[in-house]
Structure formats: C-alpha cells, structure tokens
Design goal:
Number of domains: 2
Distance between the termini: 60 Å
Strand order of the largest sheet: 4-3-2-6-7-8-9-10-11-12
Radius of gyration: 23 Å
Structural class: alpha/beta
Number of helices: 11
Bound molecules: iron/sulfur cluster
C-alpha cells in the first residue's frame, strides 16, 4: 500500500532534522517545531521522544492533519519507508555573534545575547543521538549561527563524528574571524579520518580593511584573511567557498574592493589543496534596484571566477538566487555583463589587475600539475617496488 512521506522524514531517502536556537524542527520547510521551549537544554532532550515525534508526524501527514500543501510530500510503498535514523542535522543554535554586519537579519540585541550555558555545548547532544543509533553512517552536519565557532566544543564534535561515522561530512558557515577558535579547529581537523568531508563557507564582502569594518562592523579583515589562509595551508577543508555580498549603497562595489577581494581569493587558491568556489550575492534586506554599478561589480566577480580561476560560482542565500524570478533576472544581467567584459574597453589599471590575476592563476595551475606529476611518480615507484619484491 502506498503512503505519503518526505525526504526529511524517510531515512531511505535522506532523513534529517533542523535545530534553530530553542526550537527543533522536522525539516527546514514550513513545518511546526517538535520543540519550542525557551529553556530547552540539549543535553536533556529525550531522543526516544524525538524519534516518536517524527513517526507521529508521518502518521499525521497521511491523515491529512499536518504539512498540508508541502511540495516535498511524495508517495511510496509503505515497506520502502523508514522513519528512522538521520543523515542530516542542520544547526543554527543561536543568533549571538562577534560581528555586526549591515545586512544581518538579527537585531543588535539578538547578536549581543549571552549564550545560554545549556546550549554552548554540542557534543553531549551528538553523543546521545549516536548512542540511540539515530545517525546514519553517511551522517552530515551543517552549522550556522550567529557564529558557530562560539560553540565551546565544536572541534571535539567534529572529531567525534569523524571517528565514529566513516562516510561523514560537515559544512561550517563561519565568519572565520575568531583566531583562537579557528586555530583549535585547524588542530583537530588535521587529525580527522581522511574520508571525513569538510566544507567551509565564509562571507568576505570587501577588498579593503576599511570596507570590511564598514560592512561587518568590526576591524577584523586582516584576521579573517590570515585565518582563511591558515585553513588552506593546513589543508583543513576539502572545499572552501568564499562569498561576496554586494551592498546596494555601493559601499563595496568599487574596483578597489572587487579586485582586492579577487587578489585575496587567488592567495587562498594558491594555498588550498582541495577545491574552491565563489558565491556572489546581494543584500536581501534592501529593495533598491540592481543598478549598473551592482551589475558591473557582480559581472567582474563572475568573469574572473569562471574565465580566469576556472571555478564554480554558486548563487544562493539572499537577493541573487535561482529560486526567485527577481534573482534569475539579476543573474542573467550579471552573466551578460561578464560575457561582454572580456572584449570590452577597460581602463589600464583594470587590464593590469586582470593580467596579474591571469598570470598567477597560470602559475598556480603549473604548480598543481607539477605536484600531481611528483605524486604520480612516487606512486609508480611504490607499485614497481611492490611488484619486484
Ligand atoms: S512534509 Fe514538508 S513540511 Fe512536513 S516535515 Fe516534510 S518537508 Fe517538512
Ligand atoms: S557574521 Fe552572520 S550572524 Fe554575524 S552579524 Fe554577520 S551576518 Fe549576522
């Protein structure tokens, strides 16, 4: 008999939950939370109850009393459905943050809130999920905030997941500005299982110290750059994505900022063994038109990322997303700009910047090829000696 389910509930598809501060949701969709308690203490949540609540929700969907109209609902044979362990846990436990970004949707009051002691530690909760067999082998954790490196035991949590789940992965959305925390993460990630897939996602939004301070509210540009380069040098992440959120007041659309960011991006690429990607976005709180200056800034970022660095550009987050018609329109405009930019007449300084970025990108690729060649020779030698011994 066929029954209704969805990818968030059915472990045979994926299975997941989302935690946002004092609320635990069955998904990141329009569902009601399982828990909504100001004093929620993660170390005390009954995992049996959580498992039961997921099963009850599945029943309610089939009775037509929950999740009506959700586009993720599908029908499957009953025996193919398993409301069991989860593959994905998304956590945005709090709004507290050390920065004060102009585009942030949290208020200053929320960002300044002291972390509740019962919600500063993640590891006890993860261990209890694990003890109840609630996490699948290919378990994946996504962390956002506020600033998630403020979790006291984040590095230990990564280590626990990597040690106990052989195909696990994590994505960390962090501002990368707290040096003491990034150093601890570097130290622990050096020691994780080699199959543990690690992704970092950091918004930069500036190419100068002054602009960073103006947009992010703290003078931490130099720290952020140093921390991300350290992550890259220590091979901490398999994938680093750097984001640029364009501001409609044009405070970060000048060539000085755009090329400043691109030169920093190139520096990270030089040190990063894994992959790199760029996300271009714009302030979603603003309703001003996506004017020529915004299009030019976004188009230049897109052109250099795709044509010179040869990397992926993603559009996700705020005002530049593929999922809305306004976002699609804006993306088309910036892509057209990028297409014409190569042959367009440019000021001498811009030509010089592009030449330098192109030149160092070629050197970088030669360097990578040379390293690959050295690794291949080493591997051939090992195989050869294994055969003759
Ligand atoms: S049916 Fe939709 S709203 Fe309900 S839990 Fe699944 S994804 Fe969430
Ligand atoms: S880093 Fe994120 S959470 Fe912190 S102020 Fe900026 S946008 Fe808000």
């Amino acid at each position: 008999m066929k029954k209704k389910t969805c990818p968030w509930l059915d472990s045979n598809i994926r299975g997941g939950i989302q935690i946002l501060n004092n609320r635990i949701y069955p998904c990141c969709g329009p569902s009601k939370p399982f828990y909504n308690d100001e004093n929620l203490d993660y170390s005390k949540i009954s995992i049996e109850e959580l498992i039961e609540k997921r099963k009850e929700l599945q029943e309610k969907i089939n009775e037509g009393t929950a999740c009506q109209g959700c586009e993720q609902i599908i029908e499957k044979e009953e025996e193919d459905i398993n409301i069991g362990p989860i593959t994905y846990l998304s956590i945005g436990l709090f709004s507290t943050c050390n920065l004060r970004c102009k585009y942030c949707y949290f208020t200053d009051d929320e960002l300044s809130q002291k972390l509740k002691p019962e919600r500063t530690h993640l590891l006890p909760f993860i261990k209890r999920l694990s003890k109840h067999g609630f996490m699948k082998k290919d378990f994946s954790i996504g962390l956002a905030g506020g600033e998630p490196t403020l979790f006291e035991d984040l590095p230990e949590t990564f280590k626990f997941i990597s040690d106990n789940y052989e195909k696990s992965s994590m994505v960390l959305l962090s501002n990368s500005s707290i040096t003491s925390r990034t150093q601890k993460i570097i130290d622990v990630l050096k020691d994780t299982n080699e199959n543990f897939d690690k992704g970092l996602y950091t918004s930069i939004d500036a190419g100068t110290k002054e602009t960073y301070k103006l947009i992010r509210g703290r003078d931490l540009y130099t720290e952020v750059k140093k921390n991300i380069i350290n992550y890259a040098k220590n091979n901490s992440f398999n994938r680093i994505t750097l984001k640029y959120i364009l501001m409609f007041d044009h405070s970060n659309t000048s060539n000085k900022d755009i090329f400043g960011f691109l030169f920093f991006f190139k520096e990270v690429m030089k040190n990063q063994k894994g992959t790199m990607a760029m996300t271009i976005d714009c302030d979603m709180l603003s309703h001003e038109p996506f004017d020529d200056e915004m299009i030019a800034a976004a188009g230049k970022l897109y052109y250099v990322a795709r044509d010179i660095f040869g990397i992926e550009v993603a559009f996700c987050g705020g005002g530049l997303v593929n999922s809305t018609s306004k976002g699609q329109e804006r993306i088309k405009l910036l892509q057209n700009y990028a297409k014409n930019y190569k042959t367009a007449k440019k000021p001498l300084i811009e030509k010089f910047y592009l030449f330098l970025l192109g030149y160092s990108s070629v050197l970088n690729n030669i360097n990578r090829l040379f390293k690959l060649y050295k690794r291949t020779i080493k591997l051939i030698k090992i195989l050869y000696f294994q055969q003759i011994n």
